[in-house]
Amino acid sequence: MAPKGSEAGVTPDYWDDACKHLVRRDRVLKKLIPQFGEARLQSRGDAFATLARSIVGQQISVKAAQSVWDRWAGLMPGKLQPAQVLKLGVDEQRGAGLSARKVEYLHDLAAHFDAGQVHVRQWAQMDDEAIIDELVAIRGIGRWTAEMFLIFHLMRPNVLPLDDVGLMKGISLNYFSGEPVSRAEAREVGEAWAPYRSVAVWYIWRSLDPLPVDY
Fold it and tell me: What are the record keywords, sorted (predicted)?
């Protein structure tokens, strides 16, 4: 996961309805959901900053990612903006701890936002797959990152990220006594969760790590 943001979080308004639905539909979640009380998914920050954090945090620890993020964001005055990123030099970004590849990825992300190639204001009217298509066109953002963005930033209710290692492990432990699980088996388990797959996924993650995830 990317490092935590400091902004106040926003919680989805469908959460309580989703929990009632999942408790009725799924024997595992019937036991799991009550264990976590009032804990909720929360969305923080803006779209550009969230995606930039996901790139900075790739393949390094949360602690290291936060350190690099603080140094990189500190190169820019005020709020992080795509136009500011495009003005940064490669060497100063490398000096903040970024790899050459991540510098390229962040430049491509900024260029997409600056040129209006991602339609942030239209996302509310677009379906999940259309948003994923926009995001994976950016270098450094794959389907998994796009799905995490749908869950944690846009708070879309029905995302099933089958490329997520934690989800597959959680399904294995909770539904298959720890036996390896295929994507088809995981998808079948997830069918009972619709139209609130994202909420179910969040609780499956909680079964592995009780601390709520912030993206």
Answer: DNA damage, DNA repair
